[in-house]
């Protein structure tokens, strides 16, 4: 069984043509991308590294990492966003980034221990079995390499902010973008990481002010949060 929800794939495919419009439904991704990339590079500079972006969508993070000098492979199971990513890279002349329609689990069987850095951002809350993705990410990272995850906490505040606020009141995201039951507590993600063999490093929260329309990183992990991990080894 493929670890993917057909409805989730269809949802993002329908919006694929708007992925690179910074005023579209994907505006939050454009706004948070400098924050998450900067945080990743605080842990490990990506220049010269072989990097995998799991659930890359239209390629916003993948392309940004390539611009920093990384050799990037972006993977996803939604074909339309991948085509948008490929086209955008051609239009902008960005080199060092490739895209492939393949699951993390399949790629882990093909290329275990092949990447210095693996990112999996805003993706775990959209798959049926997120722990399987964590195991695949761990398998894909080289010994001594880094894995980065970001997702949404599961609690009343995250329901209020990420679904009621972001989707229904502020309309930052299309209605139905997220399902509360698929949100992941930091303790759950930490357990999956440890069970798969990763060592957990820094955890950061991400907050948003609707009045200033500004995002920033903080120690508050009650809604959006990011986790940096390392795979023991060389």
Automatic annotation (TrEMBL):
<keyword id="KW-0489">Methyltransferase</keyword>
<dbReference type="InterPro" id="IPR029063">
    <property type="entry name" value="SAM-dependent_MTases_sf"/>
</dbReference>
<feature type="binding site">
    <location>
        <position position="76"/>
    </location>
    <ligand>
        <name>S-adenosyl-L-methionine</name>
    </ligand>
</feature>
<keyword id="KW-0808">Transferase</keyword>
<feature type="binding site">
    <location>
        <position position="121"/>
    </location>
    <ligand>
        <name>S-adenosyl-L-methionine</name>
    </ligand>
</feature>
<comment type="pathway">
    <text>Cofactor biosynthesis; ubiquinone biosynthesis.</text>
</comment>
<feature type="binding site">
    <location>
        <position position="55"/>
    </location>
    <ligand>
        <name>S-adenosyl-L-methionine</name>
    </ligand>
</feature>
<dbReference type="GO" id="GO:0061542">
    <property type="term" value="F:3-demethylubiquinol 3-O-methyltransferase activity"/>
</dbReference>
<comment type="function">
    <text>O-methyltransferase that catalyzes the 2 O-methylation steps in the ubiquinone biosynthetic pathway.</text>
</comment>
<keyword id="KW-0949">S-adenosyl-L-methionine</keyword>
<dbReference type="Pfam" id="PF13489">
    <property type="entry name" value="Methyltransf_23"/>
</dbReference>
<dbReference type="InterPro" id="IPR010233">
    <property type="entry name" value="UbiG_MeTrfase"/>
</dbReference>
<dbReference type="GO" id="GO:0032259">
    <property type="term" value="P:methylation"/>
</dbReference>
<dbReference type="GO" id="GO:0102208">
    <property type="term" value="F:2-polyprenyl-6-hydroxyphenol methylase activity"/>
</dbReference>
<protein>
    <recommendedName>
        <fullName>Ubiquinone biosynthesis O-methyltransferase</fullName>
        <ecNumber>2.1.1.222</ecNumber>
        <ecNumber>2.1.1.64</ecNumber>
    </recommendedName>
</protein>
<keyword id="KW-0831">Ubiquinone biosynthesis</keyword>
<comment type="similarity">
    <text>Belongs to the methyltransferase superfamily. UbiG/COQ3 family.</text>
</comment>
<feature type="binding site">
    <location>
        <position position="36"/>
    </location>
    <ligand>
        <name>S-adenosyl-L-methionine</name>
    </ligand>
</feature>
